[in-house]
């Protein structure tokens, strides 16, 4: 089968950073689906895993943790899907990725593809949707169905992939969303997605948020990096909660969190699959729920650019765009 893979971890400007290869077609066993991949999207995790290091892979390694496609075959223990079903998913970072014509993925982390979206539009969503959903509703304990209506959520780094779907999930839950963005195009983007207020995270944020009338906010999601930690601690309300997706090495003073009895939560959407947690199937449920919300017109795809076909050249181009740190929404690569 066709695939885009690597053997050496190189700068994306190196033509050997990705290679077009032929690999054996895998066989579905257990609870695995064999999916014929139609489109993939690229996330910061892809660029972090591919980043230069001395490791050399003896066999080509396939990256990619976002896909949509059609179920080609199912393992003997599969109960949720059948061949021919259209699906979308983010996969498992410990297994071969989605940048191949066929991929094995556990059915418990796969959702039913939104019927109203094409494969490219659907591929933009899974990883960021799971990350934002788990951040808000599992980690911060916000009620998905509106019990926290009117509470304020500050999303730091709202213009990227996670923030783009996060704004929509938060608005659907009835929250007042304060989004941060620093460029005219991302300010326009987050407003288009439903943000109630926008502040610039490249300028002092405490003053900006308080100028909007919020002395403190109920919830904070840090979806870029932890250089904003002190700001988040200052703005979170007493007994409030902060969630972050950044694996930082920066100092994180905790005295302010203790004084406020505030809580900090980490989110990694791969955790359930990596450890096969008892609630692993929750990712199937949440992706299928969001699929229904999309088909009902309450949530939209966050794709901003589509490249075609899926090959080494276009994968290098997509990684370059992500590494600029200025992409809005999601970059998708479609079709073999």
From TrEMBL:
**Pfam families referenced in this protein's UniProt entry, alphabetically:** ADH_N (PF08240), ADH_zinc_N (PF00107)
One cellular component term from this protein's GO annotations in UniProt: cytoplasm
Q: Where in the cell is it found?
A: Cytoplasm
What CDD domains does this protein's entry cite?
AL_MDR (cd08252)
Which controlled-vocabulary keywords does the entry list? Acetylation, Cytoplasm, Metal-binding, NADP, Oxidoreductase, RNA-binding, Zinc
One of the entry's Gene Ontology molecular-function terms is:
zinc ion binding
Domain called Enoyl reductase (ER): residue spans: 14-333
* Position of the signal peptide: none
Chief site of localization: cytoplasm
- Assembly: Homotetramer.
Q: Which family does it belong to?
A: Belongs to the zinc-containing alcohol dehydrogenase family. Quinone oxidoreductase subfamily.
Which protein are we looking at? Zinc-type alcohol dehydrogenase-like protein
């Amino acid at each position: 089968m066709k695939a885009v893979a690597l053997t050496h971890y190189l700068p994306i400007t190196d033509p050997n950073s990705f290679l077009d290869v032929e690999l054996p077609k895998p066989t579905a066993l257990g609870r695995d689906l064999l999916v014929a991949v139609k489109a993939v999207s690229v996330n910061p995790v892809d660029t972090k895993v591919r980043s230069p290091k001395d490791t050399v892979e003896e066999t080509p390694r396939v990256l990619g943790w976002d896909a949509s496609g059609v179920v080609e075959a199912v393992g003997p223990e599969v109960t949720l899907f059948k061949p021919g079903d259209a699906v979308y998913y983010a996969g498992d970072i410990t297994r071969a990725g989605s940048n191949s014509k066929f991929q094995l993925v556990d059915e418990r982390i796969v959702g039913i593809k939104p019927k109203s979206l094409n494969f490219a539009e659907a591929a933009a969503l899974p990883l960021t949707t799971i990350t934002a959903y788990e951040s808000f509703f599992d980690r911060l304990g916000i009620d998905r169905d509106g019990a926290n209506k009117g509470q304020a959520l500050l999303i730091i780094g709202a213009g990227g992939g996670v923030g783009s779907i996060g704004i929509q999930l938060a608005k659907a839950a009835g929250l007042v969303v304060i989004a941060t963005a620093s460029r005219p195009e991302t300010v326009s983007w987050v407003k288009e997605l439903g943000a109630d207020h926008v502040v610039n995270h490249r300028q002092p944020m405490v003053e900006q948020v308080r100028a909007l009338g919020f002395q403190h906010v109920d919830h904070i999601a840090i979806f870029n990096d932890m250089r904003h930690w002190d700001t988040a601690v200052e703005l979170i309300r007493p007994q409030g909660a902060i969630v972050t997706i950044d694996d930082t090495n920066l100092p994180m003073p905790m005295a302010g969190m203790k004084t406020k009895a505030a809580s900090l939560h980490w989110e990694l959407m791969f955790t359930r699959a990596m450890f096969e947690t008892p609630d692993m199937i929750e990712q199937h449920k949440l992706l299928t729920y969001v699929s229904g919300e999309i088909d009902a017109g309450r949530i939209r795809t966050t794709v901003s650019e589509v490249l075609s076909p899926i090959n080494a050249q276009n994968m290098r181009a997509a990684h370059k765009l992500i590494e600029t740190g200025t992409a809005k929404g999601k970059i998708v690569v479609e079709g073999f």
